[in-house]
């Protein structure tokens, strides 16, 4: 990551730590849903493969998954490798943050390049972290020393994987930062999104109440249509709504 962005002022707190929380939260949802009946993962398209009934049943138990169905998850394989054993519990998270801060602060203390654009891509600033129960205690000082050594090796391996994972993610996002819309990457709560959709439709002149309700119902059934509507400038939203009403899109 340092080689790819030699002038960055990226820090573990809040940039990397917040991104790791989002990674783990989404990984936990993906892992959980794949254990549910009728939900699978298409490794060719990197998208969730399911049917409406199975999906509706699953999201009742996982609110974080509401808007995940139509999104692409190209990093899922990397998350399995990085988080597979921790199961998104947050193990080693504090040590990792400390290590990243130490490395970056020591090498690039005078960097001035802003990384605010990356922060705007955060899908969530909260992380629901599960607590891992310790199944058995150590029986002797010798066993304790062995466990410490094992955890150290595991941390070093996870640290390397996280550097590689974040480096690849930053490279992929770098080409899009200049043109990206403020709404891309932001998750909408669908209950509020429905209100916003109708508010946008209500601004379109010349539509009857029947037409407004028809196109509103049509839009909110597809999450990607809602994303597209609100990614457009307000002046262009009316044309998009008319096209959806006419069935030309």
In short:
This protein has helices at 12-33, 52-59, 76-83, 93-107, 116-120, 141-174, 190-202, 209-220, 223-231, 234-246; strands at residues 39-42, 47-50. By secondary structure, it is mainly alpha-helical.
Q: What is the topology?
A:
Elements: H1 12-33, E1 39-42, E2 47-50, H2 52-59, H3 76-83, H4 93-107, H5 116-120, H6 141-174, H7 190-202, H8 209-220, H9 223-231, H10 234-246
Helix pairs in contact: 1-3, 1-4, 3-6, 7-8
Q: What does this entry look like structurally?
A:
This protein is mostly helical and 249 residues long. It has two domains: 156 residues, no CATH class; 57 residues, no CATH class. Helix content is 56%, strand content 3%. It contains ten helices and two strands; from the N terminus they run H-E-E-H-H-H-H-H-H-H-H-H. A two-stranded antiparallel ribbon has the order 1-2. The longest helix is centred in the middle third of the chain and has 34 residues. The radius of gyration is 22 Å and the shape is globular. About 23% of the residues have low confidence. It holds the Pfam family Myb_DNA-bind_3. This is Myb/SANT-like domain-containing protein.
